[in-house]
Each structure stands twice: as structure tokens, then as C-alpha cells.
Design brief:
Helix 5 crosses helix 12, helix 6 packs antiparallel against helix 11 and helix 8 packs parallel to helix 20. The chain is globular. The chain has 21 helices and no strands. The protein has one domain. It is about 80% helix and about 0% strand.
């Protein structure tokens, strides 16, 4: 395992893409332990890791989100959020938070959320006198709500790896997402009061309803997905296909925003993103072969149990490990590498797999806004042309608030399991 860890650390520090870091680490292990015969199994492991009906939902949901995006939904969702919360102190910052929450119900991707809302809102925030680094950090941290709201690619992957109900995972992420939105909103209002950021003019009820009508087809997408799965009409993968057809109809016929050139860009960008995820899944499954050979999941469980038998101490250690991993790896890599060990720990502690899944995914999402990886912060640095270091400094208090939410949902599983138990059998 020393060779595995050394190769992993070296290739990661060299800036090699994480998918190839995983593959090279596995190859380094096989070479160092004279187990080159296992290289014959590499293509089979990569294919087996990707050959899952549930995983087909990932490229389909990516495509559905991209189709909705070209329909101008970002501007419509921002306008609706503005109408609801713009009248409060720091209204535009609240629009960023709740616009991110609404957009997450379509994209399921934190990076896409940050890029879309950052492009739309950053110029307005600057014009109204908001600190550019603060506003970039706020949008970046708010974007991690996207994978908590269905459809969530991270939840699909966790469900596929652990055998947990996708529909229950989808619903379970809603309350933590809302909780994070409210806590970030309270922080934004406090900052606005200190800095004297302006309110927006109140919007009349008739205008609010008009803006709601404009984005209603977009807001219906997660309802259709959850309703279809909950009613037993479709599987999660079939729900993703329905979402693609629905997105085509809404963007093409309702908003009349599709053209051949736009469709070409949408299909190309969706294919490239899906290929990246699938390559990562394939190489991660090769590395999981190494973990199986070394019996790493069992070793992790034994080590944690030897340190303490207290459930809460073990959960704190699990959270700390995941938070550290999130600083260096992306969500897909963390999930594939850790879920086998985490399921063993969860079974030992008697944790509900849905509760555990939300904890794990939430940890991974915090990694999107923690250096040195901090993908969403880098996205905002690219959008605003501001130094990543300054954005990171402003993001730190909000990351602390996200960790506080993580602690709450870890200690109180009822917050996570209430809606799944109410809505999903």
C-alpha cells in the first residue's frame, strides 16, 4: 500500500487529471507488488464498473439539464428568485442563494450551477456595490446545494454503488439543501447589514405570479422525476429519459430557444462531460480491485473500531476523513473509493443507508469549495477574473456554516429521513 499511496500523492501533485491518477496508482501497485497478471483484468473491471443500468441516468440527466439551460432558464429562475427575496436587505445576494437552489433542481451539478449563475449575477452584484470576492464566494458556496436537490448525479452514483433506493436518496437531500439555503441567507443578510448593501424594489404579487408562470415548466422537472419514480411509473433511469424528452419539449416548443447549432453544442458538451465521468468510474473500479486485494474496507472498519466503539466518535472520524479527501478528490472518485468501506461501517453502527448517503454526499460537496481542488471556487475565479486566494478567504466562513449543517444532519437523522419516510415507501 506504500507504493499505491506514493504513486497517488506524486501524480496528484503533478497536476495529472484525477481519472489517470487513479489508473496510474493501480498500475504502480501492480508493478511494485509483482502482480502484473492483474493487468489482464483491467479492461474487464473498467467495463464492469460502467455497465450499470442505473448509471445510464447520469448522461441523461446531464443532457436534460443542458437542454433546459439553453432555454434561458437561468435568467427566468433568477428573475423569480429576485421577485421573492429581492426586497430584503442584501436582496441580490439572497437571489444568488435561492436562484442556486432552484437551478439545482434542473442541473444536478454544482459546477454548472456556479458557472450559470455566476455569469448572470456577478455583473449585477458588482454594479450594486457588492464586494466582488465576497459575491463570487457566495455564489460558489451556494452552488453546492445543486447536487442535494433532485436530480442529483452524486446521489445516483451513491445509490448504484451501495444498492440504496435512488428515489429515497433524491427526497432525502431536499431538507439538508433547504437548511443550508436558510443558513446562508441569514449570513448574507448579516453581511448586507454590516456593509450596507441595498434592497431591491418590492415586486407586486401580479408580477411574482407572472415570473412564476414563466419558469413553471422548469420547476416542474424535479416534480415529474420524483413523482414518476414514487408512483412506480418509471425507474430512475427511465425518469432521466423522460426528463430529456420533457426538456426538449420545454426548450424547443415552450421557450422556442433550440436551434441546430445549439443542439449540437448541447449534445457535444453533455457527451464530453459524461465521458469524463465514465472514465473516472472505470479507473476507480480498477483501484477498487487493489482495495479488495488488500482488504482495505475491512482494515478501515477494524481500525476505527479499535480507536473507539462509540458511534458518534466513529461518525466524527468518518466526516473528518471525507472532508480531507474532498480537498483533493472530486465527488465521483471519493464515492467509488470509499463507499464499500463506509457501507461496512454503516452496517456495524446500524445507520440507515439513506442517512449515510446524504452525509457522504454532503461531505463531498463541501470539497467543491475547499482548496486546493475547490472546483466551484475555480469556476467563480474564471467567471469573475478575481484571484482564487481572495475568493477562498471570503468562502471560509460559509464553508464553516456548511460544516455546521453537516454536523446537524449527522446528529439528527430524522431531519434527513423525514421526507423519504413520508413520501417514499
Amino acid at each position: 500500500m506504500i507504493w499505491l499511496g506514493s504513486t497517488f500523492a506524486l501524480t496528484l501533485l503533478m497536476g495529472i487529471p484525477i481519472a489517470f491518477v487513479l489508473g496510474l496508482s493501480a498500475f504502480g501497485y501492480f508493478l511494485a507488488t509483482d502482480n502484473l497478471r492483474f493487468l489482464v483484468a483491467v479492461p474487464q473491471r473498467m467495463f464492469a464498473g460502467q455497465d450499470s443500468f442505473i448509471l445510464l441516468a447520469i448522461p441523461l440527466f446531464i443532457l436534460a439539464g443542458s437542454l433546459m439551460d439553453v432555454g434561458g432558464l437561468t435568467q427566468r429562475l433568477v428573475a423569480f428568485a429576485n421577485a421573492l427575496v429581492g426586497r430584503f436587505r442584501g436582496g441580490l445576494s439572497l437571489t444568488a442563494i435561492w436562484g442556486s437552489f432552484l437551478f439545482g433542481g434542473v442541473s444536478g451539478s454544482a459546477a454548472a450551477d456556479a458557472a450559470a449563475l455566476g455569469t448572470v449575477l456577478s455583473p449585477d452584484l458588482k454594479r450594486q456595490g457588492y464586494n466582488e470576492d465576497y459575491s463570487a464566494a457566495l455564489i460558489g458556496v451556494s452552488s453546492i446545494m445543486a447536487p442535494l436537490v433532485p436530480p442529483s448525479i452524486a446521489m445516483i452514483l451513491y445509490g448504484a454503488l451501495s444498492g440504496t433506493s435512488i428515489s429515497r436518496l433524491f427526497v432525502a437531500g431536499i431538507v439538508p439543501g433547504v437548511l443550508l439555503a436558510f443558513i446562508l441567507s441569514a449570513y448574507a443578510v448579516w453581511i448586507a447589514g454590516r456593509k450596507g448593501y441595498p434592497k431591491l424594489e418590492p415586486v407586486k404579487l401580479r408580477e411574482i405570479m407572472r415570473r412564476l408562470g414563466e419558469c413553471a415548466p422548469v420547476l416542474l422537472l424535479p416534480v415529474i422525476i420524483i413523482g414518476g419514480i414514487r408512483g412506480g411509473v418509471v425507474t430512475p433511469t427511465e425518469a432521466a429519459a423522460v426528463a430529456v424528452v420533457y426538456a426538449l419539449l420545454v426548450a424547443g416548443l415552450w421557450y422556442k430557444a433550440l436551434s441546430l447549432s445549439r443542439l449540437r453544442r448541447v449534445f457535444l458538451s453533455s457527451a464530453l462531460l459524461s465521458a469524463t465521468i465514465y472514465l473516472l468510474i472505470g479507473f476507480a473500479h480498477v483501484l477498487s480491485l487493489v482495495f479488495a486485494i488488500e482488504r482495505l474496507p475491512q482494515a478501515v472498519v477494524s481500525t476505527l473500531s479499535a480507536i473507539s466503539e462509540n458511534k458518534w466518535v466513529i461518525l466524527i472520524m468518518v466526516n473528518l476523513i471525507l472532508l480531507v479527501l474532498g480537498m483533493f478528490l472530486d465527488t465521483v472518485g471519493i464515492l467509488i473509493l470509499t463507499v464499500p468501506a463506509l457501507m461496512a461501517i454503516g452496517n456495524q453502527l446500524g445507520l440507515d443507508p439513506v442517512h449515510l448517503g446524504v452525509i457522504v454526499v454532503f461531505n463531498c460537496l463541501i470539497g467543491f469549495v475547499t482548496p486546493p481542488v475547490g472546483l466551484c471556487l475555480y469556476v467563480m475565479a474564471g467567471v469573475t477574473k478575481r484571484p482564487i486566494e481572495r475568493i477562498s478567504i471570503h468562502a471560509l466562513p460559509m464553508v464553516g456554516l456548511a460544516i455546521a449543517v453537516l454536523a446537524i444532519i449527522t446528529i439528527y437523522p430524522g431531519l434527513v429521513l423525514f421526507l423519504p419516510n413520508l413520501l417514499v415507501n
